[in-house]
């Protein structure tokens, strides 16, 4: 029987214990649960219940979980292709974690051939007006980096470097002038947050959804292209062609890219004890941070 983890860690073992309790509270079956992803949230597929569960690391994620539920309803009301929550009171608070349940989407995750699809969905998203029934938060692009750094298991030297970089980037961001108009933004706009179904693409994962600058959503793919090396020239050109704006040609992009590098590095830093592969990838990303320029291709997780 799963037991509650009182260590304060959030890993695959403790997440399963929360999942079992959450499913019991919601009247769902958890026996055949499959862990899909462990990062800011633990994401499980529940085949017997035809749904997906998202478990936040701690209750500091409660507001984001509630926002995700509201955003899903708002996008659906506007006929925008978005993930839908199950029809039950949500979020749930379980063992000091926010939990939400989502309808299973019968399809595949987005892949590199879908970069143009991502650009089209972002273009349509950024054209929407602000919701009237609730208020989207303003985007704070480094709000999670510092807590990740301070609670991490990495060296003191790495922590000092990362915290110092955050401080420098906040000062640089204050001077950035954005050319596009503010809009609803996804906040984690990469192809893995697409599901491709027989009926068309569906956007998922609204945890970082906010009101802010569209350049941030575009800079996600651009950073994956320029820093991580995940896109070819032709693939990135397709993304730009469909959206109609190349964020890398704008003078403020290098600051946004540096912020994204910090966020991508501190995201994987949360799981350095999970496997040797993750620890090695963390070190690869830190080499870029230390050098101030890409020095090796990154591996997606």
From TrEMBL:
Alphabetical keyword list: Transferase
Pfam family, one: APH
Molecular function GO labels: transferase activity
Protein's recorded name: Phosphotransferase family enzyme
Organism: Umezawaea tangerina
Cross-referenced PROSITE patterns: PROKAR_LIPOPROTEIN
UniProt domain Aminoglycoside phosphotransferase: residue ranges: 53-248
């Amino acid at each position: 029987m799963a037991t509650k983890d009182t260590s304060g860690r959030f890993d695959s073992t403790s997440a399963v214990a929360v999942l079992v309790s959450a499913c019991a509270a919601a009247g769902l079956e958890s026996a055949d649960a499959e862990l899909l992803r462990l990062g800011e949230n633990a994401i499980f597929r529940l085949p017997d219940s035809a749904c997906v569960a998202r478990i936040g690391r701690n209750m500091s994620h409660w507001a984001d979980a509630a926002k995700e539920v509201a955003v899903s309803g708002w996008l659906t009301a506007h006929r925008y292709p978005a993930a839908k929550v199950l029809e039950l009171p949500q979020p749930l608070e379980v063992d000091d974690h926010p939990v939400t349940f989502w309808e299973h989407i019968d399809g595949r995750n987005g892949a590199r051939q879908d970069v143009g699809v991502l650009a089209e969905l972002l273009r349509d998203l950024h054209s929407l007006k602000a919701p009237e029934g609730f208020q989207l938060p303003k985007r704070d692009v480094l709000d999670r980096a510092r807590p990740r750094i301070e609670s991490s298991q990495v060296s003191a030297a790495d922590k000092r470097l990362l915290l110092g970089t955050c401080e420098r980037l906040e000062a640089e961001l204050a001077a950035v002038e954005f050319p596009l108009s503010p809009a609803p933004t996804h906040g984690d706009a990469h192809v893995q947050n697409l599901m491709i179904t027989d009926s068309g693409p569906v956007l998922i994962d609204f945890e970082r959804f906010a009101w802010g600058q569209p350049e941030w959503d575009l800079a996600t793919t651009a950073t994956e292209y320029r820093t991580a090396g995940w896109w070819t020239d032709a693939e990135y050109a397709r993304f730009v062609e469909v959206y109609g704006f190349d964020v890398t040609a704008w003078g403020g992009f290098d600051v946004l890219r540096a912020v994204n590098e910090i966020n991508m590095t501190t995201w994987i830093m949360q799981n350095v004890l999970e496997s040797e592969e993750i620890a090695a990838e963390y070190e690869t990303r830190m080499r870029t941070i230390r050098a101030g320029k890409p020095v090796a291709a990154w591996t997606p997780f």
